[in-house]
# Entry
Amino acid sequence: MNTPEIFVVSGGSGASGDQLVQTALAQFPDNNVIVKIFSNIREFDQVDELLNHANLQDTVIVHTLVDLKLYEYLTSKADQMGIFHIDEMQRLLQKISSMLNKDPQGHPGLYRKLNKKYFDRIAAIEFTMAHDDGKDPAGWKEAEIVLTGVSRVGKTPLSMYLSVLGWKVANVPLINGLDPNPLLFEVARRKLVGLTIHPGQLVIHRQHRQKRLGAQVSNYADPSKVLEELEFFNEMLRKKSVTRIDVTDKPIETTADEVLRHVQHQ
# Structure
């Protein structure tokens, strides 16, 4: 028996159709339905290709096409082939058109274009979360900002703050006793920023973390070891010509402004 599939077909990104399908599937826990998104469908041959694929499976098509000709072509062909399909856009467009006495423009992706800043910000947040704490080194070169520094210097909260402003940020921890990933220093210097902090404040941050976790890590918050760690990494970043920003006693907004001044004026 074929695994059931749902094709989301859209002239844009397919996000709205996918959200609708996922909302419906949430009512059926432990389902094995495969959802495939066919985005940027603008040509008849694209419709033919996906319909031929759907015809081989137990498939439902959910479409949000705003191009009336493509919509009519898909629905006619799907009916001929006996493929079940659901329209989640044209009926609404027709009703709104009747209410406003206006024809819809029929431009796919128009909502995303009109709200580009919003979607860019969402993309930045998703990128930053995927590249937190040294994750996905291969993707660091795609970041607009790469932050590095020792544990508890504030890389993650600063990264997230910058991402909300629309910047794609990766943050990479410097771990005492381990050599940094060589890919870190392949990042363009205009994008790379090292964060440093007064040893006393770092000790306090690490003590708070140990207390919250209920665990004691050897030397993690020891003042003399913290000083040695900071001096070692500061010197390493200096030798690698990495710009450093001191975050001691600074609100996150101030540090973010300093990071952006560096990135934007290189």
